[in-house]
Amino acid sequence: MAENGQPTGVYSASKDFIANAHVNAEQYAAMYAASVADPDAFWGAQGKRIDWIKDYSTVKNTSFDYGNVSIKWYEDGTLNVSANCIDRHMISRANQTAIIWEPDSPAAPAQHITYAQLLENTCRMANVLKAQGVEKGDRVVIYLPMIPEAAYAMLACARIGAIHSIVFAGFSPDALANRINDSEAKIVITADFAPRGGKKTALKSNTDQALLHCDDRVKCLVVKHTGDQTHWSAERDVDVKAEMAAARPYCPYVEMNAEDPLFILYTSGSTGKPKGVVHTSGGYLVYAAMTQQMTFDYQDGDVFWCTADVGWVTGHSYIIYGPLANGATTIMFEGVPTYPDAGRFWEVCAKHKVNQFYTAPTAIRSLMGMGPEWVDKHDLSSLRVLGSVGEPINPEAWNWYNTHVGKGKCPIVDTFWQTETGGHLITPLPGAIPQKPGSATKPFFGVKPVVLDPATATVQEATEADGVLCIADSWPGQMRTLWGDHARFEEAYFAQYRGYYFTGDGCRRDADGYYWITGRVDDVINVSGHRMGTAEVESALVAHPKVAESAVVGYPHDIKGQGIYAYVTLMNGVEPTDALRKELENWVRSEIGPIAKPDLIQWAPGLPKTRSGKIMRRILRKIAENDYGSLGDTSTLADPSVVDELINNRMNRG
Ligand code: 6R9
């Protein structure tokens, strides 16, 4: 509702909502002030929301000092994350549903997995891993569809102290092999096939291909999910379901230090190969649990649905760790929003009486295009809070979400955060912070955002500011390092703006102190909420024998947020044809995965380069945006005439 019924562009929750919320405006102000004034006291108290085996005596020990960056929270405490997400709920919630699994096909029955069943299945999986020789500190790669076994596998790793590294099931064999090798994993857990939207991805066959490039000792655990035939290697492959059925139903959990790694998750950076973001156990869990409860105003008994995939950080923190640490009922959805029709999300919301619904702007935009009738035919009266994540939400999509899904009565939490941050950094708390469509609003507790002038690297003190977004001090959910490369960690996040964590995002702060994320300022693009380095797509393209050179940039795309625009220079004598364009699209699909397929490929006989040979991406971005009137200074180019050629043959004339 707009305040006073006026279309002010500021939306507040109802009085009733505010009265029952965990946090109201006064509480937010007081708690936020306390959290930044005395982080030790604040996080010392918040740490008690999880169970410790040995209590911590220190809370925060962190330094953002380039050259000596070190981040430790609760460092002498010990705990087990799996015990926190399962065992501790056994007294009061053994028969409560922990996970509702909704399969790809609505004709198949949903599964309601209780906390007691979650414990048993996690223990069986843990025993299977142990029988395969997995020990504390070992890495386990998980390459699974959105099925309950993915949750069991994550929690089983946490239970025995193994470090999981999930690879999104949409990634190609090459991407999988790189991640198995970089983390030196002992085991990969996969499934025969991944059904999605009525189609099947051959995960086992992808894994077979990946393992050709890995150490022979890597074992392959296979969940027979669809039951379709796959190639089977007797010495290497293990039938997970059969082994689980035969395994002991209980497995003791291991005592872990707060700073022992819980998982690695690879994400795209602006340069080089994907980065293995490392999250540890204690601080991450405290932060995931607290944000899940506060940001969504999760109340005991609510049904929580985050539509992300566990292959992304959102699935880690808000399908598995946050909700389960809080004893919630969390939905795990195998399918897609448009199968069998554009009403699937809303059908599932009605069927399971979902209270909090959390999705990405790209999904909202694509459903918006199909018309409101798909929403209107389902009973959405159970919804209380709506969430958005992954990219800025445009006001048009915000309004549609608010009107058609929330019926004007559900606060929308636009949560800004990153793989690196473990949980929400800037977000409304629904009972406390009025929303402005398109703004992530205010910082979460303990988070100190600063806006820096990128030219001078100075902090802008005025309330109204425009620049790059950094964070001035650590919070418990922050990543600790990059797997095997602490120097790269410091270089990527702490070198450019000394003393600060650099998010890579641009940002504006308005007169009310609200933050508006304006998108990445580096060579990272955001396609349908999936993060991608332009360098990754470029190196896939140049790996093709007919490609001499390529430059990839993002351009505005109505549904995906950003599309992938590739400029390709072919080898001498190669004919640029539509067939070759298709071939290159398929090539990138198979090198990285379907999400990386270029939307537009422009043949570029030459690329705009400086005299020192650097590609001027600024110019290529402008041409891709169809905004070539304001190219800026092109005088430093080695050959300015290539620009006219590129403009004349541009692909995006919309
Ligand atoms: C959680 C997740 C992180 C990047 C981030 C930013 C963009 C995420 C956003 C948002 C505007 C939001 N981003 N949430 N931009 N408003 N609410 O998405 O992690 O995949 O690592 O992506 O996504 O650009 O830097 P990740």
UniProtKB/TrEMBL annotation:
Record keywords: Acetylation, ATP-binding, Ligase, Magnesium, Metal-binding, Nucleotide-binding
UniProt name for this protein: Acetyl-coenzyme A synthetase
GO cellular component, one term: cytosol
Residues annotated to bind CoA: R196, G197, G198, K199, T314, S528, R589
In-chain residues carrying the UniProt-annotated modification N6-acetyllysine: K614
Top-level EC class as recorded in UniProt: ligase
GO BP: acetyl-CoA biosynthetic process from acetate
Catalysed reactions listed for this entry: acetate + ATP + CoA = acetyl-CoA + AMP + diphosphate
Occurrences of domain Acetyl-coenzyme A synthetase N-terminal (ranges): 28-85
PROSITE patterns reported in the protein's UniProt record: AMP_BINDING (PS00455)
One of the record's GO molecular function terms: acetate-CoA ligase activity
Signal peptide from the UniProt entry: none
Cofactor: Mg(2+)
Enzyme Commission numbers on file: 6.2.1.1
Gene: acs
Family of this protein: Belongs to the ATP-dependent AMP-binding enzyme family.
Binding locations of Mg(2+): V542, H544, V547
Chain sites annotated for binding ATP: G390, E391, P392, D414, T415, F416, W417, Q418, T419, D505, R520, R531
UniProt modification remark: Acetylated. Deacetylation by the SIR2-homolog deacetylase activates the enzyme.
Function summary: Catalyzes the conversion of acetate into acetyl-CoA (AcCoA), an essential intermediate at the junction of anabolic and catabolic pathways. AcsA undergoes a two-step reaction. In the first half reaction, AcsA combines acetate with ATP to form acetyl-adenylate (AcAMP) intermediate. In the second half reaction, it can then transfer the acetyl group from AcAMP to the sulfhydryl group of CoA, forming the product AcCoA.
InterPro entries: Ac_CoA_lig, ACAS_N, AMP-bd_C, AMP-bd_C_sf, AMP-binding_CS, AMP-dep_synth/lig_dom, ANL_N_sf
The AMP-dependent synthetase/ligase domain, residue ranges: 95-474
Keyword Nucleotide-binding: yes
Domain AMP-binding enzyme C-terminal: 536-614
